[in-house]
Write a structure and sequence with these properties.
about 250 residues; six-stranded mixed sheet; globular; alpha/beta; four-stranded antiparallel sheet
């Protein structure tokens, strides 16, 4: 079954602060969706709600027609959902336990989410690292021995070892220099193409988002202010905030 996710009028409150004001979107199959906006726009909150790490204050999220809240309440269906939908974040330091090798850290999700034995998980780890073109020698190092770019590649491998159908990448390249960004973006794009997976790419940066996505949502102050194909939105922005983003990117005065 092709994964479908439908968010309808999703709202998120943190006390008196409203992070999301009724956001709606639909994802299906191999969709490559970008969500852009400034810090505090609600884009990361929406991503965490899609993954199931945050619960909405109001609204509805359906996964293959079933309420996500119901899916997450059952341990078996929750594990299955987190196998199908994986998050890649920006903070690669907290992603890995500094007491364990990268091999051990990558092995854990395969064992927990897919019920693999240690030997099966090791094979899965080596397969995804080879597929992504990552040096296998890094697997037996500690996280602190790797550069930021190497850790980010390994955090991608950790998310992809369970072969998710949807990847939610939240500012996953913003801390990297341009050359490393390109390599990481190509890893993600190649995986999605070869495995027919979907992507939600959350970022404040337009160049990376434009490179990797086909659909684009622009957010400001917790609201979706514009949406369309990436090419259409960039060529003919309608909302003032989108125009402002593009002007800053192009260096207009």
């Amino acid at each position: 079954m092709t994964l479908t996710i439908e968010c309808t009028k999703v709202r998120k409150n943190y006390g008196r602060t409203v992070a999301l004001h009724g956001a709606s979107l639909a994802l299906e199959g191999t969709d490559m969706l970008g969500i852009v906006g400034e810090s505090g726009s609600g884009k990361s909150t929406l991503g965490k709600i899609i993954v199931g790490l945050e619960a909405p204050s109001a609204g509805q999220i359906l996964v293959d027609g079933v309420d996500l809240g119901y899916v997450l309440r059952n341990p078996k269906t929750r594990r299955r959902y987190w196998q199908r939908v994986q998050l890649i974040g920006q903070d690669t330091v907290s992603t890995f336990d500094p007491r364990h090798t990268l091999r051990s850290s990558l092995r854990s999700p395969a064992q927990w989410l897919q019920g693999m034995t240690k030997q099966q998980a090791d094979k899965a780890v080596e397969a995804i690292v080879e597929e992504l073109g990552i040096d296998r020698g890094l697997l037996d190092r500690m996280p602190t021995e790797l550069s930021g770019g190497q850790r980010q590649r390994m955090s991608i491998a950790r998310a992809l070892v369970v072969r998710p159908e949807l990847i939610v990448a939240d500012e996953s390249v913003s801390a990297l220099d341009v050359s490393v960004q390109a390599a990481v973006l190509n890893l993600l794009k190649g995986y999605c193409r070869d495995n027919r997976a979907g992507l939600v790419f959350i970022s404040h940066g337009l160049p990376a988002t434009a490179f990797i996505t086909e659909q684009l949502i622009v957010m400001s102050n917790g609201r979706i202010v514009e949406r369309g194909t990436t090419a259409e939105v960039l060529a003919s922005p309608q909302d003032p905030f989108t125009k402002e983003l593009l002007s800053a990117y192009r260096g207009d005065t």
